[in-house]
Every structure is written in C-alpha cells, then in structure tokens.
Amino acid sequence: MKYRLYRLAWGRRMTGPLIFVVLLMAAFMVVSTGPTAEPAEPAERVWPVSVMEAEPASLHPVHRAWGRLESAQTAAIRSRVTSTVESVRVSEGDWVEAGEVLVELETEEVELSLRAARAARDRAEASLASARGEYELARELAVHHERQNEIAQNRLQRFETLHRDRMISDAQFDDMRQQAGEQAMVLAQQRARVADMPNLIARREAELAEAGAALQQARHDRDHATILAPFSGRILEMQVARGDRALAGDVLARVADYDQLRLRVSVSGEVAERLRHARDRAGPEAAVSARTTSGEVMRRFSLEQLAATVRSGQSGIDAFFKAPADPGLVIGELYGLEIDLPARDDVIALPVHALYEGGRVYRVKDGRLQAVAVRRVGDYEDEQGAYRVLVASPDISAGDTLMTTQLPVAISGLRVDPVNQPAGDLPATRELAVN
What is the pTM of this model? Predict the structure, then answer.
C-alpha cells in the first residue's frame, strides 16, 4: 500500500517537467523546419528638390543696412539779453517753420537800455556839433590873431627905427617888444588849437559812432526779445518755461535743421570703396541712390559723403545719405536703407532658400548634390519684384543646375530628384544682407 502511494506521488511531481520538455522539443521542431526569409536590402532615399539653371549676368546689387537719421546742423537757440521768460510758444517735438516764434521775453528792461542808449547817442551828437562849432570859431579867431600879429610886428619895426634915431626911450621900446611877443604867443596858441580841433572832432565822431552802435545793439536786443526759429525743423529740446530768468547766453531751445537731414550708415570697407568709386566716376551731379520704405511711404536718398576714417567702436565706415526735408522723419530713429550699388559682372541671382549657412550652394549633377562655395555680393529685386540674393563663384558656370530648396539634410553626395519648379515660385524672406 505504501509503495503504491509513493509511486503516485512521484508521478505527480514529474508531470510538470515532462510537459515543459515536450513543449520545448515541439518549439524547436517548428523553428527548425519553418521557411527561411532572406534579409531585405535598405533602399537609398531620394529627395525631391527644386532647381534652376545658373545664368551669370551683370546686375546691380542692393546693399541693405540700417541708418540713423541725424541733422548736420543743430542750432542751440540762446538768449541775447537777460530777461524773464514771458511765454513759450512751442514744445519739444513740435515742427516749426523758419521765422516762427519760439519764446518771448519781457521787454521792460530792454526798453530801458534802449532809452539810455538813445540818450547817449543824442549826447554824442551834441558834443560833435559843439566841437565842429568850436573849430569854426577857432579858425575865425586865428585869422583875427594873424592880423593883430601883423599889426604888432609893423609897430615893432617902426619903434625899432624910432629907437635907433633916439626918438623914444628904451623903456618904450621894451614895452613894444613885449606887446609884439605876447601877440605872437597868442597867435601860436590859436594856431595849435586850430590844428588840434580835427582830432577833437574825430574823437567826438568816434564817440557818436560808439553811441550809435550801442543804440543799434539795444534795438537788436529789443528785437531779439522775441526768439524766432532760424530755419524749418523740429524742436529737439526746450530748456525754459514761463517765468524762468534767462541770462544772456543761456540756451533756450535746440532745433534740428531739416534741410540738412542725413542718414548715417555704417558699411563695410568693400561697400564703401564701391560707393566711392561710383560717386567719383559719376561725378557730383549723378548721386548714388538709395531708398527706404516706412509703411506705404517710400523715400529716396542720395550719397552725400563718406567718412575718411573708421570711428572708435565701429567696424565699418560711415556713409552719409542726404535725406529729404520731410516732417515725417524722426531724428535719431533707425531706418532700413536699400543702397543701389554699381553693377557687378558674372553674378547669379538666387532665391534666398538656395543659399546655405557658411556661404555655399548646391549643384545637382548626376542626381546628387555637390557643395559649391560662393560669396554673397548683395541683394537684388528682379523685374517681378521677387527678392533675390546675388552670389559670385568661379566654380559655377552658365547652365549649371542649382538647387533652390532648403533641405535640412543637405550634404554633398545626397541623392535628389530635380523638380522643374520655377525658382520664382519659392517663398522669399526679406533679410538684411551682411556683406
């Protein structure tokens, strides 16, 4: 009985391992006798791209840069007199025309100065008239003294004859000689006075001229109690208010002359040299043109001059473009400027998407990409108004097929499938060229 129970327990313990061994053998038979699959070879991906045919030509690049608006002439309007500010007619940022009233000063003190100057002028005129009268009188007296001296000399000669003949005493002769000498002295003094009178008149005339200048200055001061705009422009700064005490020489306002507006643009040495060459070749009458667009308003500019040196802290040379006297322009604001550069030979106009980082484009040859290094020489706008970049490269020939698609995986040797999509259908993004 015990033996039978033992065999039953052992059979139950071995049932699980036997079932596992049977399943393992069945699985092995299935794998070993199943069909064998051949590994599939990976297929190379072909990228569809847009292409265009290279057509080198002579085109005018457009250099895009930022320019800051400034005025070559900014006036500091100063007070000509010391007075109290009566009224201020304008505010900072206002547009003013030439001759428009900016500030009015009180005129009471100026009028007092004017009356004093007028009185000094009248006094100088009277002194001059008196000196001229004295001159005429001195000349008449000189004629009279000439006659008196002549009479005295004749009497002296007669007394000399009488004294030789012992007809008069020595005392009488000495008295006559004394009278003749005194008359000669009076004549000499009168002659000296007559000779000095022109100098006195000249001094009086100078005093009158000085008084007249002071009067004219007082009149100018009165006229300048009303401060006027020296030219048409915009008020940059007002430094006084009503009731302030303005001293002579104090700055009351600053005004920018809008007839002297210009854009200061920093350009590279290469662009500056091309601009200088174009200006010198064309002459002063044919200015290099540029333009800027603000909203729907387009403004044109002309090259005025180029700086001779590079300013400290800058990497480029300043070019100055004369701006129109437009009240809509704001001093100190930045404007995006498009500068028309001289024509360049053998350049290619490409959509912006055809140019890759590092200055390269891709040529398609035998269905694969070839990287070609290019140099960007500017921007360009074709006849349809599409934005393009101009590049130059000695490694690109007319008729080469260039890729115009921006592929994130673009690399030399990549297999592509050219699509005959016109390059002009590609979207374009306007960017400032950094040459």
Answer: 0.59
